[in-house]
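Supplementary Text 2. Reproducibility record for the structural model of the 388-residue chain.

All settings were left at their defaults, and a single model was retained for analysis rather than an ensemble. We include the record here because the model underlies the residue-level annotations in Supplementary Table 4.
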Amino acid sequence: MKLSTAENAATEQADRTALYDQIEAEFEAIKQRYRAKLGPEDVAYIKGLRLKSRIAEVIGRGLLWISKDPLTFALGVAFTWLHRNLESIEIGHNVLHGQYDSFPEIPQFHSRNFKWKAPVDEEGWRREHNGLHHVHTNVFEKDPDLNHGILRMNDQVPWNNYHRWQVPMYLFIAYPIVLYGFNQQNLGFRQSYRERHFPTGNVGYAPVHHPEDVTVKDLKRRHWLSVGRVLFKEYLLFPTLALLTGFSYWKVFLGNMLVDGLNNYWVSLTIQATHFTAPLQPEDALRHKGHWYLTQLDSSVNFKGGRAMSILWGHLNYQIEHHLFPDVPSRHYPDMALEVQEVCKKHGLNYQCNPSWGRAIRNYLGVMWKYSFPPKAAQTPTGEARHA
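Retained model, structure tokens:
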């Protein structure tokens, strides 16, 4: 007996719902298994990481301070970069996701108490990154990280002349200072810029909203407090202390500037290379947790790397697991990945993983380059030119 169109549609919907139910149950089971494992080892991990970060800072800043040759100077840059990098992504980013909020013995690593050693306003980050990007990942005009700044990464965003230059602008202007620019996105300053300069304003971009009692003056104050604390430390305090003790102000200043640039580039390319996968995701995925889990699989891509390097990448080479389980301590992601892959294999789902960081970066830059240019003109049935 042949089913009607309506009956076919109902059957397909039932099959989809059954799949969503299975996916939700299996991913929730993974999450709960690892939550049950949380304990003293997690506390020791984050406290040990902070200790290693501080040791690297003392060594690095000390070498920059006293260096008299290029080798000592380079080692000073390397150790100071290690400190700044650990604090930026493996400690700061993960702590602000609430990964250690369940441990009363380490209140300094609770997301609401934590002070980032990066020039980023913590409240703005939690609101934009945790509350919008991780909820509406790759949803058009809902995910502020999908097309941030002037970036155009899909055909639905109207093209304008700014986009022609997005590859060099991001590689040589935005990425060297990306941490200093996060507030521009998180606090809503970028959308004000687009409103003034883009022909279509914020069409294609997701706005960031703040409570009505928060004024532009408040946002600017928060921005400069978070940025100023880092600028003061890196470019005034430590260079001046070097000068007062008989060493070179400018050598320390230059060393800190190199560390800043390297740290910003590392963070930029790690984050960007694991996002911006196709296709765009439906807004209604939030109606079913299993459907939402599937959109996170579609919206994230991993790249391979060893466990030690994963720490330097903030475990964001496991971006899929991070998007599925953002509040589980990141040190568990390599093990969770094996279970996620089993679920994907069982249900015939695509688990996206690049063979290396370099390949992931190349793929991302290729997408950025592609959308730098206006859509190609196509022909209508009447022969008139139109834009796809």
